[in-house]
Amino acid sequence: MKNTVKIWLGPLFHLFFPRCCVVCGAPLAEGEEAICTHCNINMPRTNYHKVKDNLVERMFWGKIPLERATSYFFYRKGSDFRKILHQFKYGGRKELGAIMGRFMAAELATTDFFEGIDVIIPVPLHPRKRRARGYNQSEWIARGVSQVVGLPVDVSSVIREKHTDTQTRKSTYERWENVDGIFRLRHPENFVGKHVLIIDDVLTTGSTTTACADVFHEVEGVRISVLTLAVAEG
């Protein structure tokens, strides 16, 4: 009965409250999620998952035991695609994280990017920031990825112990200093010989992601891969 009501009321609801593309604002067609087909086609994808030793991977060379790394699209100044991250992080639209995570995973799954990975670790927020925002945006991306590739998401092993100022408008040095020693790993024995995928929203200098990966530095045989929704260009 409930499903029948939803089927009947759904089109009526969308008539008065149309679903719109988060990028261009155009009404979404049936079957489209969050972004319209036109914007999806024109998304500034990096396609770095197809490129060995790509720019994102080079950001982590010599810092962590890196297997592979990529970002889904470029975060460009003035680009309408920045609206995805703005609505997701600051507009309360946490569902965008899961949707974009599914989009991203579906494309990467056509390659060997997820091969051998044991667990997904979303970069954690400090409890104070999580309460203020209401959710961890990286966790929602991770859960979208998990829905496609079936990998478990671990949100309890890496803890963010220190509350830090926003990284926005900080210099590269200030970003690294701001995140030094802010994470802690619980039960490191659970990760011996494991391949961990760290997921975050936006990659700028790589300081936060590297600080998160650093908690595994004494774990024997651990391997790290990195996946972010976007990477800042320039």
TrEMBL record:
It comes from the Bacteria. CDD domains: PRTases_typeI. Pfam families: Pribosyltran (PF00156). InterPro entries: ComF/GntX_DNA_util-trans, PRTase-like, PRTase_dom. Residues 141-229 form the Phosphoribosyltransferase domain. Belongs to the ComF/GntX family. This is ComF family protein. The lineage of its organism: Bacteria, Pseudomonadati, Bacteroidota, Bacteroidia, Bacteroidales.
